[in-house]
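Handout, tutorial session.
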Amino acid sequence: MTIKTYTKNSEQRHDVYYCAKSQIVPGLRVQKRATRIETLAEARRIEKDLTIKCIDELRAKESIGRTWGDVVDKWQSFRRASNEVLDDTVDDYVSMMKIWTHSFWEKEASLINKSDVRATMDSLIQSKKSHSFQTKVLHTIARVYRWGKEEGHIKGMFSSITSGIKASKIFEHTPLILTLEEMAKLLLEAKRQNNPWYPVWATAIYTGMRCGEIYVLEWGDVDLINLKITVSRSYNKRKRLVKSTKSGYCRTIPINTALREILIELKARSTTQQVFPAIPGWANYDQSRQLKFFCSEIGIKPVKFHTLRACFATHLLSQGVSTGVLQRIGGWAELKTMARYVRLSGVEVRGATDGLAELAPKDTPDSVVSMADFR
């Protein structure tokens, strides 16, 4: 407890502050303050009142326990401090929790039950969220709840609130992946129309680089002699700063002949360290809108910018590139991330039905019928 005495406008005043910290719930505390008190006697009386109020309020909160929102906030701080996952990724998980668990955000975490989780799943289904997104929300709830119990933020002994609850197997829309013909048409029309995005779209298609990685690519990263690009940085549009790649490590991408020609032409005109000139709107999330608009204009599927990375992965797998090589080139941190692209490419099932081709009827001399027989 503290009484601070000071002089203001030639008059003596007193501020009182008291903070009660819990010895039961880690990090829980109650603070109260009173300011501009005229007399010291009055300040001491208020000090006693604040002390009693703080202790009573603290005991009440200790008996109730933390809310689900408090636990999620604590989990966010823990994950950010661990440096195991990028801060942006952690923030995305927290944002997802705020949106889809808002119905029990202020509820005591120890009182949350399966009916609360089922209500969240129903909301996801009504919003037509995909099976994979539903699973992501469900797993995040389980992860945060388990961490809260382990760290003592959720009181009591409870079983998992997500056990037995599964994502709904609702219809999954076929993802918009450009065919090789559509990708060729995109590049041809963009070049023919001298679209400023042409070299950027081409780089995304030929390398699978993320938009933020292309944005900060410098000539020092491009080796036109050994035909390789070193990717070690990316642009964080939320924080407006250059950071490490999403996977956290640098990687090398080979330069094919088509991309080499584009880069040589860019370098001949370049006057800066940046490989690609600034395009209006690129730093403000406009790249997807521009690509969708152009695709619609030329009569192909309107895809967002990040889809070009999926096109790169899917078609390389279709052409026989191994998942291990593709993972190293594309910078995917885990092989399980590649599973979606393997499924889209069809490499796992290629040739599976070839054996049944032997059942096809074969033309033999005995099966040839003369039209004269029907005269």
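The second record follows below. Compare its token runs with those of the first.
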Amino acid sequence: MPCVGLIVNDGKELAVETAITLQSRFEQAGFDVVRASSSGGMVGFANPDQHLRMLGYNACVPEGFDTSMAFAIVLGGDGTVLSAARQTAPVQVPILTINTGHLGFLAEAYLADLDRAFELLLNNQWTIEERCTLVVSVLRGEQRRWEALSLNEMALHREPLTSMCHFEVAIGHHAPVDISADGVILSTPTGSTAYALSAGGPVITPDCPVLQLAPIAPHSLASRALVFSDQEPVTVFPATPDRLMMVVDGSAGCYVWPEDRVLIRRSDHPVRFVRLADHEFFQVLRNKLGWGLPHVAKPDRP
């Protein structure tokens, strides 16, 4: 009997109600259903005194999810999708994202499309688009102190009420560079429309095999976003005596101390998104972020 998954934001009543409906419909169609809470992928911010996370990113995979699962449906907003990415990418389960939140930039369908989406899934009329992910590790010497999977970005920045920071960044075999700024962002193409965009970085189409380094409020006219091959591992050394805060995809993170370093590398486990129709990236940019809309002059007032 085929198996499908449901990953639900249990904090949203609409998502929970939709999950109950979908579970009933899939079971009537002859599927086994495994349900999980999206909270399992929200690693959270580690305790500043005990931020060891040595299990690795596979620890987020829910019980019952494995490579034999046909697909999983994610019910929630963009934060839920980021969480579900950590839960499914290590076991290669494709996810169909149905938005029950607000912006829904990562959503493939909306609740109004639920009946149509269900029929397309049953008739195997769907494709898969892979999006690269990052493995973000905090190392002290040879010890791995913290690790998580990232679909969007890693942001390393100063704490409130502290001064500007210095970061030494080594990209692959290239010479290290020094960046003076409030922080640095290392993002995937998927994350180029998130925090990196707000920091002045370019939008990168998802099919480009690159990463982006963007400084946050840099103290130099020469410090601008840099795009480079995603085959290059990146190491960030905090060249400052104060501890820093690292946040991954907005729902995971820890403190980084002067004796630590952050290693970011492309993961071997991409997120596999279910697409029900041709996924036109420029159309998504237009609809969600207003990119490319024609300029129309406002009429004169009478």
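Points raised in discussion: The two ends are 68 Å apart (CA to CA).
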